[in-house]
Structures are given as structure tokens and as C-alpha cells.
Amino acid sequence: MRPVQLRTLDEATQAPTDGFLADVIEGLSRPAKRLPSKYFYDARGSRLFEAICETPEYYLTRAEIEILGDHAMEMAAAVGPRRIIVEYGSGESIKTRLLLDHLDATAYVPVDVSREPLLAASAAIQTEYPRLKVLPLHADFTRPFNLPVGALGRSLVYFPGSTIGNFDPAEATALLRNIARAPGCEGALVGIDLVKSKRVLEAAYNDSDLVTAAFNLNLLHRINSELGGEFQPGRFSHRAVFNEAAGRIEMYLVSKIDQVVGVGGRSFSFRAREAILTELSHKYTLDGFSDMSSSAGMTLTQAWTDDAARFAVVHLVR
Ligand code: AVJ
């Protein structure tokens, strides 16, 4: 097949990473330090995430692919024909193909903060689906953004991968409310990871090949290369624990020693064993997610799970 040249539309107002330095300084200045998880996904981080999906412990992606393989036709029937599909956090768009094969969509708008993977995935999709209008949008979907001209009409938000789990309940509700209010948007297909045993969950975020550890530590490499940070990543270790009360995996980078690290002309001190929170990954029950959707003005009308009921794809209608 002939490769296709595509241009990403950059949301002009603000590049997705403009706030990187400000967010790092703000997060490391807090008494309980944290860094936003959206900065994991530079080119290397995106590759590491794809590698996580291949580890035996990280069941999420395989479970979601199983669901799409078994139920994409029912999903397409629920969504209806001739829709614009707007995908949040599209990454490699692997799962999207399973949907597009059944969906009779008019346009596909992948939205991602990571520019190169977005472009590569969009070009590949355009080659494979020549009649589909592919309109990549390089943007941060947590901020208001405009759909590209040519993608106006009835749309569906496709939000797979349990990325919504990265947001705390208030933020996730706000995100769903924004989806519900977007002009032309009729609803969403959302992938969520379901609550299960602490053992299985913690294994998924502590794979034995240490790919997740490398993914977590990549944040420090990225601060070094893009912001002139002076982290020595070997002086931090990866930790992921399931907080049962909050129903979420919490991922941290833990300082191995007392140390001071410079970033952007400032210095931050870390005590031995002090932790930086780098990611939350919420696990839901179907009832809990349905309640949250209702409070955002959306109704959960259908849910599909894999055979082992580890993961769900739900249809929300506004
Ligand atoms: C891409 C946000 C869905 O939370 O499971 C994988 C990211 N972090 N392993 C998740 C991730 C550690 C992932 N999401």
C-alpha cells in the first residue's frame, strides 16, 4: 500500500506540552509531590506503553481487544451509521481498527498529546481506510478544543484503554460532562478497567520485565531532556500499589536517598523514601461508573465485558 502523507492539526491556542515546566514545578513544590501522568507519553514513553501492553501481567489491552473482537458489531449497531468518531488518547489506534471495520464512520478524529505517534498512526489508518476522512488533532483532550473543520456533524467519542481511570472522580465526571456538552456529540464508548483482586491488579502494574518501571522512570528522563532537569533516574524506584479504599492503583517514583535535584533553575529536595505520585488508575464497578456517568448527564445504556469480566466497554448516551 502507498503511504499517505497527513498533517496534524495543532490546536493553535496552546501546544499540549506548553505547561510542562510549570506543571513540574507546581507538582514538585507540593508537600505531597506529584507529576501529571499525561507527560508520560513522549515518543519513548508511548513506545514503552505499547510494550507494557505486551507483558503477560498487563491484561487490560488484551481484554479490551477480546471485547471488541466479540462485540464490535453490537457496538456499531448501538452507535448508528455515518458518525464522526473522535478518539481521545488514540496512541497507536490498534483497537480503533476493530471498531472502524464495523462502524461505517464518515470521519475519524484521533486526538493525542504525542505528536509523532499520532501522525504515524493516522497515516496508517488513512492508508487502510481510504474512504474515511482521517483528521488527526494534536491536542490535550482535558482542555477545551475545537474539532477540525470537516468533522462537524453527529459524533461519538471513543475513549478506550481505561485512560479515564487516570482522572480522579471529580475530573472524570467533568470530562464526561464536557463530552456530553460537545456540539453534535451523541454519546461515547468508554473502556474501563473493573475492580478485581489486589494481587492481579498489582501484578499488572509491576511486570517482572520492569517495563512499567521504565515507563514510570521515563518521566524523569523526559524532564531532564526537555526541561534541563538534573534527575539521576537510578536514584528513584518504581512503586505501584492498589489502594482498595479509593479503588485505584497509585503509581509512585520513590527517592532511594536524601537528594536535591535541579529543574528549571529551581531545586527540589527529596528525603529518602519520599514518593512522587505519578499516576492514578481507577478501577470501577459497572454500577459505580453508571452513577458517575449519570451525574455527568450521560446514561449508561449497554456494557460489554470480556469472558473473565476483567474489563468493560460501555455505551453512554447523552
Ligand atoms: C494508558 C492510562 C490506561 O492506567 O493502566 C499502564 C497507563 N500505567 N501501566 C493504565 C499505565 C502503568 C494505563 N493507561
TrEMBL record:
Pfam family, one: Methyltransf_33
MF term (GO), any: L-histidine N(alpha)-methyltransferase activity
InterPro entries associated with the record: EgtD, EgtD_Methyltrsf_superfamily, MeTrfase_dom, MeTrfase_EgtD-like, SAM-dependent_MTases_sf
EC number(s) per entry: 2.1.1.44
Keywords from the UniProt entry: Methyltransferase, Transferase
Organism: Nannocystis pusilla
GO biological process, one term: methylation
Domain (Histidine-specific methyltransferase SAM-dependent): residue spans on this chain: 22-316
Coiled-coil residue spans: none
UniProt-recorded name of the protein: L-histidine N(Alpha)-methyltransferase
